[in-house]
Amino acid sequence: MAKSEEAKAQAPDTELQNQEQTSRDAKSASESKGAKKRKQAASSEPNKQPRRSSRHAPKFDVSPQQVLKFLVSEDAAKLCAPSDEAEALAQDAKLRTYTSGTASFTAFEELLCAVILSRPISHRLGLRSIRTIFNAPYELTTPKAIKDAGAEKRHQALWDAKTQHKQKTVEEMELLAEVFDGEGKDPVGLEHVRKEAEYDMDKEKDILQSSVKGLGGRGVDIFFRRIQWTWSKAYPFVDKRTAVILEKIGLPSDGEELAKALDDAWADVKEVVSGNDEGEAKRKAFVIVLERAVGAGLESKTDDVLEKAGKT
Predict the structure, then answer these.
(1) Using CA atoms, how far apart are residues 125 and 135, in angstroms rounded to an integer?
(2) Residue pair 77/123 in contact by the 8 Å Cβ criterion
(3) Rounded-to-integer distance, Cα 229 and Cα 52, Å
(4) Rg, the chain, Cα only
(5) Do residues 158 and 140 lie in contact, with contact meaning Cβ atoms separated by under 8 Å?
(6) Cα–Cα dist 271/227, whole Å
(7) Which of 311, 297, 245, 251 is closest to 79 using CA atoms?
């Protein structure tokens, strides 16, 4: 009797175990069937080629020669300048501006520009500051002019420019004038700096950075990028920031290679850029190309440059 009751008590457990096993077997069969269907479906699909990204596909079919020819043109000068600077030049063609002064400013003027553009302000504000202090009624373009202007006039020039960091910029202008105005110094061409550095670019950089307050690495690059047309020992120089933009418009980012590309395109360029000799004319063209490339990059117009260059 005890054995029978024990068997009856165990019966439900056995039945439950059988039900669970049946359920597991059914689930396993279903999963196996589903996997088989998926496999068959996958094998029946045709082989697909991997998708190719068009992100790096060239938008414009333009040669370096076409880009160089366009960059030295008057159309490029207008395109690559900030709109307010282009408008100011349209109203007064004789206005001295940073963009129109490429390869024509004195060494001191370029250094003053580099100091202003080293400030943490936008490129447009920097150019507006230069445009204001380089023209009437201020014309603060030499150490003597800056010193003779007096503190009030120097401050007023920056206020009229409606720029930022006015006080700091005024102080740096005053210090710059003090450093380069004195006996035995060339306050315009800065030839005494070159002689002291034995015409070595790295030494020139060291002297300028140690002498000029506010002139950081970026400012030094700006100065040498623009002054190399006349400080020929620095030629051909391309700074890192400019190199990135040159690549975007299909030009070599290396100075030597860019100079060679300019040589190859010289027949199309030489009628636009002049100099005391062909060597100087080529250095001027080199600087103009760099500056307009930088302008196109800052104004987000690299695609416009390529599009217009393709039509030359």
Answers:
(1) 16
(2) no
(3) 44
(4) 35
(5) no
(6) 22
(7) 297
93: tokens are 């063609």
Please state, in angstroms and rounded to a whole number, the distance separating the CA atoms of residues 198 and 233.
10
Contacts of 196 (CB under 8 A, 6+ apart): 203, 207
Q: Count CB neighbours of 133 within 10 A.
A: 27
Residue count (the chain): 312
What secondary structure does DSSP assign to 231-284, as a single string?
Answer: SGGG-S---HHHHHHHHHTT--SSHHHHHHHHHHTHHHHTTT---SSHHHHHHH
Q: What is the DSSP letter of 53?
A: P
Please answer whether residues 291 and 102 qualify as being in contact, where contact means their C-beta atoms are separated by less than 8 angstroms. yes
Q: Please report the beta strands in 173-301, taking only residues with DSSP state E, as ranges in sequence order.
A: none
**Nearest-CA neighbor of 288 among 68, 91, 34, 8?**
68
Give the span between the Cα atoms of 111 and 154, in whole angstroms: 17
> Contact, 66 vs 312, CB < 8 A?
yes
Secondary structure letter of residue 253 according to DSSP: S
**What does the angle CA 91 – CA 94 – CA 98 come to, to the nearest 5 degrees?**
95
* pTM higher than the cut 0.90: no
CB 113 within 8 A of CB 130: yes
Contact 149, 170 (CB under 8 A): no
pLDDT in tens, 55-95: 444 577 899 999 999 999 999 999 999 999 999 999 999 99
Spatial neighbors of 10 by CB under 8 A, at least 6 apart, are none
* Residue keyed to tokens 């060291």: 206
User: Is there a contact between 209 and 215 (Cβ–Cβ < 8 Å)?
Assistant: yes
Q: What is the pLDDT of residues 86-127, one digit of tens each?
A: 999 999 999 999 999 999 999 999 999 999 999 888 899 999
